[in-house]
Task: structure prediction
Amino acid sequence: MDKRLVSTLLRICQSHENRFQPGQALSQFCADYNVGRHQGASLVFTAADKEEIARILQGEEGVDSRTTTPDAWDSLNRAQSLSLAFDEKLSGRTVGAGRIRIKTLADRPLGVLGHCWTFPVRTDMGLDVERVLAQTIGHDALLIVENLQTFDEIHRVSPLVMQGLAAENPLVVYRGDTQGGARVDAMHRLITQTSLPVYAFVDYDPAGVVIAAGLPRLHQLLIPPLAELSHLIQARGIARRYLEQVAAARHVLQRIENDERLAPLWKIIHAAGKGLPQEYFHGENP
Result:
């Protein structure tokens, strides 16, 4: 059962009111368990309905409506949440919260947490951003990589792209997402709390440009020579990728037309009406 639905059901059980807004999940719950009834624009619950909801919460989720508040999970991690319910996913803390994933280019030392390591390729570390910020970072730049596969295979990226990187030993940072054990907000905190130059390697499409535009202190994008990139996007780009992204990003893209860091790339993408994923530049591709 979704955490938001559990919280809503707890509010119903614990409230003296009997009328509530019929959200989609709540309406489906009422239909599935034959509790409550629609009256006008509201769902109405009798005392007997509330007792039945309490029994369902206890029996199916292990949640005691007499002692558990609707916001009880907000500060708990997954393990701690098991003290309140059967399902650890009711935790209020997102997996990966405050975490970043970092690595280096091939054969470069990783200098964080007061140590210096050299790892094989395709090796990275997941760390709390606050711990990384607490000690000197032994790198001369941050390289933010949009996609997890490219982060994993940064050692295979074409020199055509990497030649634009002036730093000798950047800290390579995965941008983060909801699944990869790293968070976008933690990555942004790393940038804002350091003074290292920021390079970005993103997809060559509207969404990638928007991601780059949102990075604090962006120094430079990693892109092939513009003439070469223009040829590649025209020849190998994906029109559907462009069309699916451009409308949603238009308000941001209009603001970067005079941004010397981003405008040249955006003009090429816009003129082609296509997008090219950064994975194209792995391995055998130019």
Summary: Residues 47-61 form the longest helix (15 residues).
